[in-house]
Amino acid sequence: MPLLRLKHEDTRRVVVLMTILLVVSGLGSLISWTVALALFLVLTVAGTFFMIAHYQRASEECRVQQSQDIQDLQFIQSALDMRRPLPYFTRWSSSPALAAQLIGIIQVYKPQRILELGSGVSTVVMAMTLRDQGSGRITSVDHDPVYAVKTRKELAAQELHAWASVLDAPLVPCDTPRGAQPWYDLSVMDDLEQIDLLVVDGPLRKSCKNARLPAFELLRERLAPGAIVVLDDTVRDDESASVASWLSAARDGASRFVPCRKGVTIVQMP
Ligand SMILES: C[S@@+](CC[C@H](N)C(=O)[O-])C[C@H]1O[C@@H](n2cnc3c(N)ncnc32)[C@H](O)[C@@H]1O
């Protein structure tokens, strides 16, 4: 039950509350122990109410997100000719919201060349959509051979290998305007030009600061006119720089933010 787990921000909140409690009570003890005790009790009660209110809000947000997930899953189910269940959506994978957006984009724009950074459930969902509409191909790159193999196996089990392939692209130092930073080995993607849909769902945030910004700097020239770029996790601060870059490059294009758990931003290049 995630609500009961102490996550990083919850731990911070508890530490701040405890520090305030101890400092204020400590100051009160300079006046008298009765004042210190009174302050301690008042602040404990106030802190408890604060935490209860916080968890109530968190649980309400959780309910809203769950109902959004259900709606997105219903859409995915109805949009695809699903012959086997999809792999589970996890906190590492794309969200149902991202998967639903990708299906919608493929159905409307019918992209023929798709490049995805970070393979997984989204690769399978996009490959199914291409199969159902009868054209297009997705190349997904993964820095982690374990997850690349996992996605390849899932594509094979779903008989989708004709529509998608997963390439191993280790993170190597790449030249960016900020100096060298780890990013997918570009030589793996040498054959990919005129990309109609680019899905940026990797590398992982922990690989470095602004981990996804090189996608813009290194792949922009390979996009077809009017290409769609989908960026996942755009509620995160680290991704805002990437979003700003794509948006400034797409001044004549359109962009849309999908308000969901991780935040998805969709940009159409000019
Ligand atoms: C955000 S994930 C990409 C998710 C993918 N688009 C999907 O829909 O499942 C970025 C990378 O995380 C790695 N990854 C996937 N699942 C993971 C897990 N459970 N633990 C650690 N890394 C994982 C994979 O190498 C993947 O390329």
Structure description:
Helix 4 links the parallel strand 1 and strand 2. The strands form two sheets. The chain has a seven-stranded mixed β-sheet, with helices on both faces. It has two domains: 74 residues; 185 residues, 3-Layer(aba) Sandwich (Rossmann fold), CATH 3.40.50. The model has no long low-confidence stretch (mean pLDDT 91). It contains seven helices and nine strands. It is α/β, with parallel strands linked by helices. The site of S-adenosylmethionine (SAM) has 15 residues, from helix 4.
Q: State the CATH architecture of the largest domain.
A: 3-Layer(aba) Sandwich
Which CATH class of the largest domain is shown?
Alpha Beta
Number of domains: 2
Bound molecules: S-adenosylmethionine
Morphology = elongated
Order of helices and strands: HHHEHEHEEEEHEHEE
Order the strands across the largest sheet as they lie in space.
3-2-1-6-7-9-8
Strand content: 15-25%
The average pLDDT value, as a whole number, equals 91
Q: Which class do the helix and strand fractions yield?
A: alpha/beta
Query: How much helical structure, as a percent, in the residues?
Result: 40-55%
Q: Major beta sheet, specifics?
A: 7 strands, mixed
Number of E-type strands? 9
Distance between the termini: 45 Å
Q: Give the name of the CATH superfamily of the largest domain.
A: Vaccinia Virus protein VP39
Regions with little confidence, pLDDT below 50 for 5+ residues: none
Oligomeric state: single chain
